[in-house]
Write a structure and sequence with these properties.
Elements: E1 4-13, E2 16-26, E3 31-35, H1 42-49, E4 57-62, E5 65-66, E6 74-77, H2 89-93, H3 95-99, H4 104-111, H5 114-117, H6 133-146, E7 151-155, H7 163-179, E8 184-188, H8 191-197, E9 200-205, E10 210-215, H9 229-244
Parallel strand pairs: 3-8, 3-9, 6-7, 7-8
Antiparallel strand pairs: 1-2, 1-4, 4-5, 9-10
């Protein structure tokens, strides 16, 4: 039994289908990428999985139990860091703890040990405006982690970053997901990002969006990987699928 099982999800708005027949399995400790262009229903799918929207059909199982329409099972991170500008970083990242009723002092104490491991040591008393984009995104990752959901749902978490910062943060996340035993489902439109991070890539195409192809990257995850032949071969294969379309397989 997979940790997360999604079966035949479909969702429409005002009679217009957005996603159709979405099925996937996510194992504990696995990273799965949903790769697709804008407008194919990636964010709609995430909102259904997170319980914010109810699908027209299908089911979502966590540990074999239906959680359809329920919230609170996932840690959900959006594209923007959404840090509150008037709060110190330590209070921003410990916000999920405060929401659960933990006192401010105790929430800070619980959050503080993670600052070094998330590359944020020394920023506890800073405000968001004092941090770079990459550091703010690390803070958003820590806040998401402290929400203590079984699975991290990441909605294009690197899309707002410049190329150098994105590469550094992707390298850091590859290490962090192993260190913290993270189970991750993320959506992206960046092929290289998906190849660098994911154990499996699902191509989401069409209107309504449906899974058209599944890839298992066979790559050595290391620095300079973009220069390797396998990386370019698989990137080219994915680009070809998007250009030509691909039947469900």
């Amino acid at each position: 039994m997979s940790l997360l099982e999604i079966r035949d999800l479909g969702k429409s708005f005002e009679g217009r289908p957005i996603i159709r027949d979405i099925s996937l399995d996510l194992e504990e400790g696995e990273t799965l990428a949903l790769l697709g262009d804008s407008g194919v229903g990636k964010s709609t799918l995430f909102n259904v999985i997170a319980g914010f929207l109810r699908p027209d059909r299908g089911d979502i199982l966590l540990d074999g139990r239906s959680i359809l329409g329920q919230t609170g099972h996932f840690s959900y991170m959006l594209q923007k860091d959404l840090l509150l500008p008037h709060m110190k970083i330590v209070d921003n990242v410990s916000l999920p703890l405060r929401i659960r009723g933990i006192a401010k002092k105790e929430a800070r104490e619980k959050a503080n040990p993670y600052f070094r491991e998330f590359g944020l040591e020394g920023t506890q008393t800073f405000y968001p405006a004092q941090l770079s984009g990459g550091m703010r995104q690390r803070a958003a990752f820590l806040r998401t982690y402290l929400a203590e959901g079984r699975i991290m749902l990441l909605d294009e978490p690197f899309s707002a970053l410049d190329g150098v910062t994105k590469k550094d943060l992707i390298t850091w996340y590859r290490e962090a997901k192993d260190h913290f035993h993270l189970t991750t489902l993320f959506i992206t439109h960046d092929i290289e990002e998906a190849l660098l991070l994911a154990d499996e890539i699902l191509l989401l195409q069409g209107k309504p969006g449906t899974i058209s192809r599944r890839f298992r990257p066979n790559l050595v995850k290391k620095e300079g990987m973009e220069l390797e032949e396998d990386f370019f071969r698989q990137k080219t294969e994915i680009i070809t699928c998007f250009q030509e379309g691909y039947s469900v397989k």
